[in-house]
Amino acid sequence: MKKCLIIYCSYHHFNTKKLVTEISKKFYEIETLCLPINGTINLDNYEFIGFASGIYMGKPAQVLLEFIKNNSSSLQGRKVFFILTSGTNSIKYKRQFKKFLENIGCTVREGYSCKGYDTYGFFKFIGGISKGHPNRKDISNAISYCESLK
Q1: Burial of 52 (0-12, 13-18, 19+ CB in 10 A)
Q2: SS3 of residue 135 by DSSP
Q3: pTM check: above 0.85
Q4: 12-37 CB burial, b ≥16 within 10 A, e <16
Q5: How many Å from the N-terminal Cα to the C-terminal Cα in the chain?
Q6: Helices (H), the chain
Q7: Alpha-carbon torsion 25, 142, 8, 118, what sign?
Q8: 79 backbone dihedrals φ, ψ, rounded to 5°
Q9: 85-141: per-residue pLDDT in tens?
């Protein structure tokens, strides 16, 4: 795999962090960066950039969206991919995020998404949804997805 950076946000149950951590163990050449950060990062040092986030109120983490907007000039024309986790794993989240990245000017590979344990809002009253996710199969599928990016 070419020099790659995955920029991610993972709060609450750290679903996305679980995926990113396992991916980085498998692929030593992938660097990871958890937002928010102090300072700047030179995105030109990477041939491939990934964005990973849980879905919060129907969107990826606001800090990730702001990072992408603030670095849009460095991302135009760049090859990017994304990984999302959510309680429902709705396909609309992938479509919306892909469109957002394309509107920035990125060349976007089809993303990967899976369920993640979710206790937001009403779900907390019923003990949450998608308990046990991401599971071993979700992690294995995420690793396979990254292998397909080579």
Answers
A1: buried
A2: coil
A3: yes
A4: ebebbbbbbebbbeebeebebeebee
A5: 5
A6: 15-26, 62-70, 72-75, 91-104, 136-148
A7: negative
A8: -80, 125
A9: 998 888 999 999 999 999 999 999 989 999 887 777 667 677 776 787 899 999 999
